[in-house]
Amino acid sequence: MKIKIPPQINRLVLLFILVTGLFLIVRQFLIPDTFGDLGHYRAASLEDNSDIPLNFAGGAACFDCHEDIFDLKEQDLHSGLSCETCHGPGQAHVNSMEASDIFIPTGREYCGRCHDKNAARPTDYVMQVDVSTHNEGLDCNECHNAHQPWELLR
Amino acid sequence: MEQHIQHLYEMLSQVEGFIYPNELELQWGILIVIYPYITGLVAGAFILASLERVFNVKVLKPTYELALLTALAFLLVAALPLVSHLARPGRAFRIMITPNTHSAMAIFGFVYSWYLMAVLLLEIWFDYRKSFVVWSRERKGIMKWVYKILTLGVMDISPKAIEWDRKIGYFITVIGIPSAFLLHGYVGFIFGSIKANPWWSTVLMPIIFLFSAMVSGIALVLVIYMAVSYIRRQAIDMKALDAIARYLFFMLILDFTLESLDQIHRFYEAEESFEILSLLVSGRLYLTLIVFQVILGTLIPLVALGTLQLYKPREKIRKALYLSVSVLVLIGIFFMRWNVVIGGQLFSKSFRGFTSFKLGLVGSEGVLMGIVWIVLPFIILAFLLWFLPPWKKAEDDI
Amino acid sequence: MGTTKIKTNRREFLRSTATAAGGLFTFFWLQPTKAFILVSREEGVTEGPWYGIGIDIEKCIGCGKCAAACKDENDVPKDPFFFRNWVEQYTVKKDGSVVIESPNGGMDGFTQSVPDDQVFKSFFVPKMCNHCQTSPCVQVCPIGATYDSPEGVVLVDEESCMGCRYCVQACPYGCRYIHPKKNVVDKCTLCYHRIKKDLIPACFEVCPTGARIFGDLNDKNSELIRFLGEKNVQVLKAHLNTGSKLYYHSLSMEVL
């Protein structure tokens, strides 16, 4: 028994195949190249995320030129600190060697960032003073060498 | 960008308690309130149309094509607020190219295309095909060719062909019902599946969205039917109107029950997020939730419609009541979406504070733009009613 | 004779079924439950490092240098609305209320706001992307613009992201934001560009007390594994089961 397919169905099925086919073809061209290589993402994005310039040089980078300061620092309580903790991002300075490209901290507020008395600050990991009253008027550098803080200068 | 940053500094003073630093600005604004509102209207209008076709509710016949065309007009606009809210709208096409099958949002492109093409347009085509053939013969000039193209070359209008139209149309409507549920239900799931947000994360979210969608869709068709009849100076079929209002009433009861269940459950369990959410409801969300959504948008319509089931006053009074109730319901459901979307972002995920939502007048996320998106479907509907007039259709054998 | 035979068969059947059932039950009961704290890596991926983070609350002094260094390293706008990394200060007052502050995300350090005589307990909590193993942000991205790298770092593909913000909504920790200039989602990348050159992320570099530990969870000798072994550790919002790889030591209950 032959079933007669109505012309509506014929026409619509044709249209459906056309539209779906077109979509699938266009889609193939639009999928980015490395998509799906490692997971449901564009694998080349890993390179995009690694191809970014450094601003912080990392502790070891300072050692080559500033070994003397390193040795000084190792003997006192600031030994665990990276240079860039206080001096800020150093890659520009490493690239250019200009003294102006590295930040030299000054002022009581700067040291107070870590050392100001605060109830939330654990006392066994940082020495604390009340920055507003501790030896008022003097800059921290006048008594403390930041690389050897307990060797008081005054 | 500078102005934007300046605006953010101003918003800092509006913060109450503690919020994570990145939470100051709401990510989803009025456009994301409008999108589910529109797709909800589409789903609701379509379900009402299906009642006539699939469940043989004959009394609704005068509103069948009207409901379908309303659904189409709103569906055509639905994607627009969505695309315009993106930070990079030009990349929106990627959702069709590399959809992530784990993401509810990725369904959008496919469900939208499916519903538009395989359900709504097809159903309208099968319903109007005979009219297309007849109009293409009657009209002259460019309209003749337009209707001819719309027939897709299928010019047979013998009783057998019409019978096929009816059968296939029925089949499509049957498929259309779960498709409509998917079109709007997935939006509810988008919110309901976010475990990070306790205001959104509930199993009931897709269901609540669906039922409030049906309520809003029914109310919309009621309003449009009354408006179109008034404009065309045609008498309103009161039996149809009473039936629509009756469906609205029952759907509203179901919707209210589900939403209340959600809140009662939250209240009873009183888990970790309860405190901040109570503060949310009694504070920043009080006006839009308690006043606009619950009292104005749900309780008053329920009382009014309930009373009308028991006591039926004169036609004129009934019409006025139906109209005002429907408008209230439409406003109420809009604010339901508002309370979900905006409400969910007003409190911090630290559960310790609130930020604020500033709705500007101009700009792509402003009030004016929102009004454009809501008014545009009506303009499209007016065009569709001129292009595919339901009352001028070639005579159907019923 | 026929009846006896059937009886024996039935007994045999019951015995073998019970043995099978009992065996299955015991088998499943004895299966070691996956370590709840130390998330396990995806099956089949065994090569290369798999990064995690440890933060010791007892050592954090709230200097905020981590928050500042991150912005310097990654060119994040300095305005206080976009943070890949920030510090919170919790002060539990003697009346039981909790005050939480994060002025400028802690970028400029902290000053004590609650007077000493009202303080019951106070501590700092650094926050950052948890680089979750089963990250909800990766799960919800509709187009695959955010992903888990082979090293366990959750990254964003800036070329693909369309800024739908679904991932921002999905992150329980508030780590993501829309970059105001790039108009795509931005977040902590664990300084992917640094760790690929065998350096450590900027925030770990500048921490003066060693409160932050960066390490390879696959390296049995790493400082991070030692940290996990020696200390009581916890992750944020553990009930959400995000597979967070940011392990805190000494996290008090006030932190949500």
Contiguous low-pLDDT stretches of chain C (5 residues minimum) are 33-37
Tally the structural domains of chain B. Answer: 1
The strands making up the biggest β-sheet of chain C line up spatially as 9-1-11-10
**Average pLDDT level of chain B:** 94
Output the strand order for the largest sheet of chain B. Answer: 1-2
Quaternary organisation: heterotrimer
Report the end-to-end length of chain C measured between terminal Cα atoms.
Answer: 73 Å
Structural category of chain B is mainly alpha
Number of domains of chain C: 1
CATH class of chain C: Alpha Beta
CATH homology-level superfamily of chain B: Formate dehydrogenase/DMSO reductase domain
Kindly describe this structure.
The complex is a heterotrimer of chains A (154), B (398) and C (256). In chain A, 40% of the residues lie in helices and 0% in strands. Chain A is mostly helical. Chain A is elongated and about 110 Å long. Chain A starts with 6 loop residues before the first helix and ends in a 39-residue tail after the last helix. Chain A has helices spanning 7-30, 45-50, 60-63, 67-74, 83-87, 91-96, 108-115. Chain A has three domains: 7-50, no CATH class; 59-104, no CATH class; 105-154, no CATH class. Chain B has one domain (16-353, 361-390): Formate dehydrogenase/DMSO reductase fold (Up-down Bundle). Chain B has 14 helices and two strands. Chain B has a two-stranded antiparallel ribbon with strand order 1-2. In chain B, helix 8 runs antiparallel to helix 12 (315-341). The longest helix of chain B has 34 residues, at 159-192. By secondary structure, chain C is an alpha+beta fold. Chain C has a single domain (52-249), classed as Alpha-Beta Plaits (2-Layer Sandwich). Chain C has helices at 2-30, 65-74, 136-140, 166-170, 192-195, 202-206, 223-230; strands spanning 51-56, 85-93, 98-101, 119-128, 146-148, 154-156, 177-178, 185-186, 212-216, 233-234, 246-249. In chain C, strand 2 and strand 3 (98-101) form a beta hairpin. Chain C is globular and about 85 Å long. Chains B and C meet through helix 1 and helix 4 of B and strand 3, helix 3, helix 4 and strand 7 of C.
Provide the descriptors you would attach to this structure in a database record.
heterotrimer; A: 154 residues; mainly alpha; 7 helices; elongated; C: 256 residues; alpha+beta; Alpha-Beta Plaits; four-stranded mixed β-sheet; 20% strand
